[in-house]
Write a structure and sequence with these properties.
With 212 residues, the protein is of the alpha+beta class. The protein contains seven helices and ten strands. A seven-stranded antiparallel beta sheet has the order 3-4-5-9-8-7-6, with helices on one face.
């Protein structure tokens, strides 16, 4: 019976991967935003989110996390500052990127930007629901990485009481000066150089003063 269950689960996962690969990026984005968000299974101070079962947390520090799948690192940053202050900013789409699209869904703003950095390596930046994920993949894995990232970002739920009691407005205001998730990595030369030089070392958390 157990073997049958595992086989069925494997077939479902395989079918899901094929479905994603057959979609274009807009379809993946729209399905993720309009579908029912996954139930959170990972709890942090002030928020919780859903971590897909095939992913593992490599490191967690403050509001930064490295989540891995198949040797690919997903860098998650949850911006409690922007959430606390209900800060939003308009994203300007550009024609230079491989993909560039703003997100406006249920009064939440964000963006998806994908740029080829070098040697068929693409940097995906997704900002939504007051959080951001950055991940570097080859072209063939863009859609899968996008689906994983959106499943995490759309699932984030905040705890207003905890955020208010544990941090307070003054602490948040000071922290706000060093982080801006509304800017893309490639919009700043120093950050782009950081991305190229670091090669997303799985043992190193990105400096959030650089990862905007």
């Amino acid at each position: 019976m157990k073997k049958i269950f595992i086989l069925i689960l494997f077939m479902l996962l395989l079918t899901g991967c094929k479905s994603v690969n057959k979609m274009n990026i807009d379809e993946i984005k729209n399905n993720s935003l309009n579908g029912k968000a996954a139930h959170p299974n990972t709890i942090r101070v002030g928020y919780k989110y859903y971590k897909p079962g095939l992913m593992s947390i490599v490191r967690s520090e403050n509001y930064n996390e490295i989540i891995m799948n198949n040797d690919t690192n997903y860098y998650l940053y949850v911006d409690l500052v922007s959430y606390y202050n209900k800060t939003n900013s308009d994203y300007e789409e550009n024609d230079i990127s491989y993909y560039s699209k703003k997100i406006e869904h249920k009064k939440k703003k964000g963006y998806i930007e994908i740029n080829e950095i070098k040697d068929n390596q693409y940097l995906i930046e997704i900002m939504y629901n007051y959080a951001k994920i950055e991940v570097m993949v080859n072209k063939a894995n863009i859609k899968t990485a996008l689906a994983y990232s959106l499943s995490i970002l759309t699932s984030i739920k905040y705890n207003d009481k905890v955020i208010e009691s544990t941090m307070g407005k003054n602490v948040l205001s000071v922290h706000e000066e060093s982080v801006n998730i509304f800017k893309t990595v490639t919009s700043e030369r120093n950050t782009l150089k950081y991305v190229e030089d670091s090669k997303y070392d799985k043992d190193v958390l990105p400096d959030m003063d650089l990862v905007n």
